[in-house]
Write a structure and sequence with these properties.
By secondary structure, the protein is of the alpha/beta class. The chain contains nine helices and 16 strands.
C-alpha cells in the first residue's frame, strides 16, 4: 500500500508542475487549465507522499507492549507496601519514588500475601504504618518468617502510632521485640500549639534534630552529619538485648503523651490534649538482626519526606544496610560496645 501511495503522489506532483497531460504509473491526468487546480493537485500529491512513509502494523511487526507489572515485579530488589492505605500519608509515596532505586516496586492492590511471590524475590520490604487499617495475623507471620530467612525489613512509625491512627503496627513490630510508643517526641521549648501543628507540618523545626559525630563508626551513619525526626514516636526495646544500632537525641527529647476522648459516645482514637512529661533520651531509630535477616525501625515516616540535612542520605544508608545478600549470614569484625 505504501508503494501505491508513493507512486500516486509522485505522479500528482509532476502533473502539477507541468500542468497535467501526464500518463505514468498506470495513472492518467488530463491537462489542467488553471493554476489553483495545479496547486491543489500538488498539495494532494504531497499528502500522498507523506502517507506513504507511515508504517502500518503487520503480523510480523506488531507494536511491542511494555513489560507487564508482574514481569517488573519479579526483578524488584526493594518493595514498598501501599496495600494498607499508606499512600494517604502526605508526600510519602512521592518521596519514596524519588528516594528508592529504579527497580523498586510499589504494591497497591490486595494485601502482602497476594504479593508473596514478589516479596520473596526482593531483598528489602518497606512498611509504613497502615492508614486506618490493620495487618492480618497471616501477614504478620509471613513477614516474620521472611525476615528470618534473610530479608531486610524497614518499619516506619508515627507519633501516637496505633490508637490515634487506628492501626495495629505494633503487632507487627512486637514479633521482632519492639514497639512504637503512644507518644510524641518534640524538641525542647515547644508549646502545646506546636503539638497540634506538627501533624501536618514538614518543618524540621518541629522535629527532634540530631547532630552526628564523625566518630560514630557505623555504616548506617556514613556521610550523615545532621538529621531531623518530625512527628516521631519513641521506640521501646522489649527484648532487653542491646540492638546493633540505636539513634537518640543526647540533648533529651520532650515527651508529650496524648490524652484521648473517653466521653460517652466519644471517639476513642481522638486526641483531646497532650501532657508534657520530663525530658528523656529515647531512641528514634533502631537496627537489629533477626534470624538471617535485618530489621530497622524508625519512629516516623517523615524521615523520608522532610527536607533537612542528611535525612535522604540516612534513608539511603538504611536501605543499603538492609540489602544484604539473602540467605547469607552477615558478619562483622566488631560488635559496637
Amino acid at each position: 500500500m505504501e508503494t501505491t501511495l508513493f507512486a500516486t503522489g509522485i505522479a500528482c506532483l509532476i502533473a502539477a508542475i507541468v500542468g497535467g497531460g501526464l500518463k505514468a504509473f498506470g495513472i492518467e491526468i488530463p491537462l489542467l487549465k488553471s493554476i489553483p487546480r495545479q496547486v491543489a493537485l500538488g498539495a494532494f500529491g504531497a499528502v500522498l507522499l507523506a502517507l506513504s512513509f507511515v508504517k502500518t502494523p503487520t503480523p510480523d511487526s506488531e507494536p511491542v507492549s511494555p513489560r507487564s507489572d508482574i514481569e517488573q515485579e519479579k526483578e524488584s530488589s526493594v518493595v514498598f507496601d501501599l496495600t494498607h492505605g499508606q499512600g494517604s500519608w502526605y508526600y510519602l509515596e512521592d518521596s519514596m519514588r524519588r528516594l528508592l532505586p529504579n527497580d523498586a516496586l510499589f504494591i497497591r492492590e490486595g494485601d502482602l500475601l497476594s504479593h508473596s511471590k514478589i516479596i520473596d524475590r526482593a531483598q528489602v520490604l518497606l512498611l509504613a504504618l497502615p492508614y486506618h487499617q490493620d495487618f492480618s495475623l497471616d501477614e504478620i507471620n509471613y513477614v516474620r518468617d521472611w525476615v528470618a530467612d534473610g530479608g531486610g525489613l524497614l518499619l516506619m512509625g508515627y507519633y501516637a502510632a496505633e490508637r490515634h491512627h487506628e492501626n495495629n503496627i505494633c503487632e507487627m513490630t512486637r514479633v521482632f521485640g519492639f514497639e512504637f510508643t503512644d507518644n510524641l517526641l518534640m524538641p525542647p521549648g515547644k508549646s502545646y500549639s506546636d503539638t497540634r501543628t506538627q501533624r501536618s507540618s514538614q518543618s524540621p523545626d518541629l522535629g527532634v534534630k540530631i547532630a552526628v559525630t564523625s566518630e560514630a563508626g557505623y555504616e548506617i551513619l556514613n556521610d550523615v552529619r545532621k538529621t531531623a525526626f518530625v512527628s516521631s514516636s519513641a521506640i521501646v526495646n522489649l527484648t532487653g538485648k542491646k540492638p546493633y544500632f540505636a539513634l537518640s537525641d543526647p540533648m533529651a527529647n520532650e515527651v508529650w503523651i496524648p490524652q484521648y476522648d473517653t466521653s460517652p459516645g466519644g471517639m476513642p482514637s481522638a486526641i483531646v490534649k497532650y501532657i508534657k512529661t520530663d525530658p528523656s533520651e529515647l531512641p528514634l531509630l533502631l537496627a537489629v538482626e533477626h534470624g538471617r535477616g535485618r530489621v530497622v525501625l524508625i519512629g516516623t515516616w517523615k524521615l523520608a519526606t522532610v527536607d533537612y540535612g542528611d535525612n535522604t542520605k540516612l534513608m539511603g544508608n538504611l536501605i543499603l544496610w538492609l540489602r544484604q545478600k539473602k540467605y547469607q549470614k552477615f558478619t562483622r569484625d566488631r560488635v559496637p560496645g
